[in-house]
UniProtKB/TrEMBL annotation:
Heterododecamer (2C3:3R2) of six catalytic PyrB chains organized as two trimers (C3), and six regulatory PyrI chains organized as three dimers (R2). Residues 158-303 form the Aspartate/ornithine carbamoyltransferase Asp/Orn-binding domain. The keyword Transferase applies. It is an enzyme of class 2 (transferase). This is Aspartate carbamoyltransferase. L-aspartate binds at residues 88, 171, 225. It catalyses: carbamoyl phosphate + L-aspartate = N-carbamoyl-L-aspartate + phosphate + H(+). It comes from Christiangramia oceanisediminis. One of its GO terms (molecular function) is aspartate carbamoyltransferase activity. HAMAP family: Asp_carb_tr.
Length: 310
């Protein structure tokens, strides 16, 4: 197994090889052990400076990256576009060049425009980690999701995973499809027809519009929230209607003839895509996902930093 990544940036899962994912997980296993120690810090990246550029609101992802960076002893600069010169009309490249002139080695960026990370990687001399670009990709979320499945079920290969909800606007769905297929899992998507992209089958995934049938098929259900903030029209009659057809509740879960694992990338709309009694049950690994997110992001940053230091 290679001891280094085949890529210089983490722009999307579609640029990774299966060996890259295996290396990230092996490294994350080590860091998971580190963050459960009394002293949770390692001096690995003491001379690396990382800028977190968030042009879109995010709480969990930003905190998770920040914690991962600090656990590795990196120097961290946080930049939130809402309170920056971007509001005054500064371009993405100017913002980044200003930050790079401060001698930054790595940029973690979330941006509303698909492809922003790729654009950046061509123009600046720092390693780029895509923390979500529009409705395109969110690679570290897909990695931590797969890592959490591997932790609970032993491996990802051969597992049946259904992604339920707003597939159309979800960068989590696309990155998960790429990651799961790369590792040999079977994938289906489930949701209202209006929220399933037209050519999704070309990615090698099945489509199921009946939630119960999807749950009876799967080993793992990843429940996505409806992204109202990305919708300019109504994609289904009402929230109540959505809950009736695609909301996961405990009676439905207990009516299945088998145990399945429930996941959610957060933030949860409790009572919409998933009820509280499911989210807080033993079936759910939602809090494991949060903890694993720090270990996986530590692994990604550590491995990319090794490429910078060569």
């Amino acid at each position: 197994m290679s001891s280094e990544l085949s890529v210089k940036h983490l722009l999307g899962i579609k640029y990774l090889k299966k060996e890259d994912i295996e290396l990230i997980f092996k490294t994350a296993d080590h860091f998971k052990e580190v963050i459960n120690r009394p002293i949770k810090k390692v001096p690995s990246l003491r001379d690396i400076t990382i800028a977190n550029l968030f042009f879109e609101n995010s709480t969990r992802t930003r905190l998770s990256f920040e914690l991962a960076e600090k656990r590795l002893s990196a120097d961290v600069i946080n930049f939130s576009a809402a309170s920056s010169s971007v509001k005054k009309g500064e371009t993405l490249i100017d913002t980044v060049n200003n930050i790079l002139s401060m001698k930054v080695d790595m940029v973690v960026m979330r941006h509303p425009n698909p492809g922003a990370g790729i654009f950046l990687s061509k123009h600046v001399n720092a390693s780029i980690v895509n923390a979500g670009d529009g409705a395109h990709e969110h690679p570290t979320q897909a990695l931590l999701d797969s890592y959490s499945i591997r932790e609970r079920l032993g491996e990802v290969a051969g597992k049946k995973v259904v992604i339920v909800g707003d597939i159309l606007h979800s960068r989590v769905a696309l990155s998960n499809i790429f990651a799961l297929k790369l590792q040999g899992a079977e994938v289906k998507v489930c949701g209202p027809k209006t929220l399933i992209p037209k050519h999704i089958e070309s990615l090698g995934v099945g489509v199921e519009t009946n939630l119960k049938a999807a749950l009876e098929w799967c080993d793992v259900a990843n429940m996505l929230r409806v992204q109202n903030e990305r919708m300019d029209i109504s994609y289904f009659p009402s929230t109540r209607e959505y809950v009736k057809q695609f909301g996961l509740n405990l009676p439905l879960l207990e009516s299945l003839k088998k145990e399945i694992v429930i996941m959610h990338p957060g933030p949860i709309n409790r009572g919409v895509e998933i009820t509280s009694d499911v989210a807080d049950s033993d079936h759910a690994i939602i809090l494991d996902q949060v903890q694993n997110g720090v270990a996986v992001r530590m692994a990604v940053i550590y491995l990319l930093a090794a490429k910078i230091q060569q």
